[in-house]
């Protein structure tokens, strides 16, 4: 495995168009719109100017009045990233898409199309849906259980990979003399007949520039970690402390090895919300102001939705009640309840965290403070990079690009420019 000293930090930008912090939109000088493609292009170009590896958008297939402004209404990710692809040159473009309510042929075709449009910069964040609100949008009253969702996801990935590999390199060789455009022997059906899917193939689009999109996964449950060890190339996670991150990092890399894969070919990137100031005092004042503006009632509703239980019956200034792990988002529930126990948080305090950073780690300080933190996590085996979550869009992204990235470069921890054309190459992943 490459030593930490030879590594460079990978950076993703986790995009919420009006800021990751629930109060961030209230402090911006210029309020964006989650469905304004010009605003999203502006953000993508800022990230590309900073040489971020990834522009990443999450997604959900249901909404409610209690969601963040960025997520209550938003553009469909693949449609949006296709527009960004023709307005950027090098930054990777990653979209979340669920395996629970889709089919492999459509998904493989859509992501292959994005990879062609972007000339090799597409990535798929593979998720399973867990909300009953989503099920009701797809003609169901309930959600498949956790094990069933992951069994379907595993076969779903198996089928999409077969479809992507169904077109070999060199399958397109137009010959005007013979009138043959394709080399038929290099295009194969897959004839998949499994428990969840029966797919003939081949895919009706040529082999994509990367061979297949970069595969991202974020599940930290036992099933999620196992699937990621077998199939993921980038793993998004959440960790509240270096020790917690090191434990996850070692466990996940060991599982990658056990799956017969090279651990250097799996990039682990925890989410982090940096609150950047030109001075520590400035950063601390901003963080305090953000949290002062949090609507605790809304935070409590978000936490109740996350925990699948009504928390309004419990005293706000009392301890966080015991939360049984159910069939929903197990990893995030455990992370937040562990944080509450470790830091002795009241229900009010955890609701503020849920509304603010949604359980991800927050670093408050100067560019030097943030670079110190990132360097420590890289060298001590806590991360290969970070998924950056700007609290205020675009002011905090601007400060990160202006102050933090030059400090990381000064330490030899981040690139001066993109070295390659494709996302796979820029992440140091093997060609396919």
From TrEMBL:
Pfam families given in the database record: Bac_luciferase
Ranges where the Luciferase-like domain occurs: 26-384
Keyword annotations from UniProtKB, A to Z: Flavoprotein, FMN, Monooxygenase, Oxidoreductase
Claim: Flavoprotein is one of the keywords in the record: yes
Gene3D superfamilies per the UniProt record, alphabetical: Luciferase-like domain
Protein origin, superkingdom: Bacteria
InterPro entries with a match to the protein in the record: Diverse_substr_monoxygenases, Luciferase-like_dom, Luciferase-like_sf, NTA_MOA
Record has Oxidoreductase as a keyword: yes
Family classification: Belongs to the NtaA/SnaA/DszA monooxygenase family.
PANTHER family: ALKANESULFONATE MONOOXYGENASE-RELATED (PTHR30011), C2H2 FINGER DOMAIN TRANSCRIPTION FACTOR (EUROFUNG)-RELATED (PTHR30011:SF16)
Annotated protein name in UniProt: LLM class flavin-dependent oxidoreductase
């Amino acid at each position: 495995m490459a030593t930490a000293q030879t590594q460079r930090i990978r950076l993703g930008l986790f995009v919420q168009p009006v800021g990751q912090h629930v109060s961030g939109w209230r402090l911006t000088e210029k309020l964006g719109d989650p469905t304004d493609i010009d605003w999203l292009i502006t953000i993508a170009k800022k990230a590309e100017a900073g040489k971020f590896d990834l522009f990443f958008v999450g997604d959900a297939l249901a909404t409610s009045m209690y969601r963040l402004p960025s997520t209550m209404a938003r553009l469909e990710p693949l449609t949006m990233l296709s527009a960004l692809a023709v307005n950027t040159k090098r930054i990777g473009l990653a979209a979340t898409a669920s395996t629970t309510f889709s089919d492999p042929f459509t998904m493989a075709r859509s992501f292959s199309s994005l990879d062609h449009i972007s000339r090799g910069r597409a990535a798929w964040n593979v998720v399973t849906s867990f909300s009953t609100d989503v099920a009701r949008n797809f003609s169901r009253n309930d959600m498949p259980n956790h094990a069933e969702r992951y069994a379907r996801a595993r076969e779903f990935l198996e089928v999409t990979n077969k479809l992507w590999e169904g077109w070999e390199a060199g399958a397109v060789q137009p010959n005007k003399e013979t009138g043959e455009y394709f080399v038929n022997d290099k295009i194969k059906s897959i004839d998949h007949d499994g428990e969840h899917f029966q797919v003939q193939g081949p895919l009706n689009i040529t082999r994509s520039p990367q061979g297949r999109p970069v595969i991202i996964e974020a599940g930290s449950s036992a099933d999620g970690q196992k699937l990621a060890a077998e199939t993921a190339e980038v793993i998004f996670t959440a960790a509240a402390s270096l020790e917690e991150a090191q434990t996850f990092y070692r466990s996940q890399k060991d599982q990658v090895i056990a799956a017969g894969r090279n651990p250097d070919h799996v990039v682990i990137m925890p989410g982090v919300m940096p609150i950047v100031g030109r001075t520590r005092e400035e950063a601390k004042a901003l963080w305090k102001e953000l949290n002062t503006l949090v609507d605790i009632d809304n935070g409590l509703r978000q936490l109740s939705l996350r925990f699948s239980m009504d928390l309004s019956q419990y005293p706000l200034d009392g301890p966080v009640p015991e939360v049984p792990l159910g069939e929903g988002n197990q990893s995030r529930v455990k992370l937040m309840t562990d944080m509450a126990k470790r830091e002795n948080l009241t229900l009010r305090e955890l609701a503020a965290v849920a509304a603010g950073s949604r359980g991800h780690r927050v670093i408050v300080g100067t560019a030097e403070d943030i670079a110190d933190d990132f360097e420590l996590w890289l060298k001590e085996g806590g991360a290969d990079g970070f998924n950056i979550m700007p609290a205020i869009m675009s002011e905090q992204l601007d400060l990160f690009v202006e102050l933090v990235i030059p400090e990381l470069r000064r330490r030899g921890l981040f690139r001066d420019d993109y070295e390659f054309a494709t996302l796979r190459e820029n992440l140091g992943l093997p060609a396919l």
